[in-house]
Amino acid sequence: MTEMDRFFLAIMVSAVLLLIVAADLLVNGPGLQESPADVARVLPSTGTIIR
Predict the structure, then answer these.
(1) What is the average pLDDT value for the chain, to the nearest integer?
(2) DSSP state at residue 29
(3) Hey, which of 5, 6, 15, 48 has its CA 20 to 30 A from 40?
(4) What separation in angstroms does the CA of 34 have from each of 2, 29, 40, 47?
């Protein structure tokens, strides 16, 4: 790949990530996102699955 192709690919990936974040904020609102600690508390630990 040339230098221009890599730059274009980086811009496209950044744009897609920005759209994902913007859509998430649009759906959930800025104050309703859970912190990573809350998400880890909700998800079951692997020790309880494997017995």
Answers:
(1) 78
(2) -
(3) 15
(4) 41, 11, 10, 23
Residue 31: other Cβ atoms inside 10 A: 5
pTM value is: 0.52
Q: What tokens does 10 get?
A: 């980086």
**Per-residue pLDDT reduced to its tens digit, 16-30:** 999 999 998 888 877
H helices of 1-51, in order, are: 3-28, 36-42, 46-49
More confident residue, 32 or 5: 5
Residue 17: both structure tokens together = 């990530």
Cα–Cα distance between 4 and 45 in angstroms, integer?
44
The torsion angles phi and psi of 19, rounded to 5 degrees, stand at -65, -40
